[in-house]
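Researcher: I'm preparing a figure for a lab meeting and need a structural model of a single chain. I don't have an experimental structure, so a prediction will have to do for now. The sequence is pasted below. Please return the structure as tokens so I can convert it later.
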Amino acid sequence: MLPYPEIDPVALALGPLKIHWYGLAYLTGIAVAWWLAIRRCREPWSPIKREQVDDLVFYAALGIVLGGRVGYTFFYGGQRLIEDPTWALRLWEGGMSFHGGFLGVLLAMYLFGRKQKLAFWRVMDFVAPLVPIGLGLGRLGNFIGQELWGRPTDVAWGMVFPADPLQLARHPSQLYEFALEGALLFGLLFWFSSRPRPTCAVSGFFSLGYGCARFFVEFFREPDAHIGYEAFGWLTRGQILSLPMIAVGITLLFVAYRGSSATAQRATGTK
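Model: Understood. Here is the structure written out token by token.
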């Protein structure tokens, strides 16, 4: 069993104002994505120009925060939202959902593309490789904040989280998510998108990759206590929400490469 490296979840306290590592992780993720967007917009195949990057990041940040919060209240809020609807507005109490943030970014990118007269899927293909950075940093914030820990285990790297009332050795599932949804997915997407790909291919790669990674890690993550297991008595809410992402990813990749093949055939006159 590994000792949990106790870190104060509050990074900086200025009187009554407390800045948590989780919030800093979000800000750092957005800042790094901004920097990478500036670098990648210089590529000749980029649909985004330098003067559009700032607006792109602003729209994406709004989609992440608003979508993440709204998604959490609807996907995981349950009875609490019914009993106290104002809870949805109390952001300082925590609670963000990736799947809600994902839907928020989709809407934000649609509005951005419409304003800039850019095709939606070309914008999404540009944005997709930037997303895992924030996902990975957010999972580190979860780990420091001792939240969303894993299921009980007897593996050698199990950890006892001080905030766990049962004091059981658990999978450090936040670190699994950091490794898969963050570092690995970012590396694969950055490599995959480093050369021109058919429209929708990068978006499909992201959706399929994240959906599979999240579905897998959920087997090691403790389900929300007020929700528990759902479909078939063993699927979690996170796994159910990831299944549509897997299906969409496969569909987008099929459409992207089928369309690319059909275009190539027309260009060469083959059938």
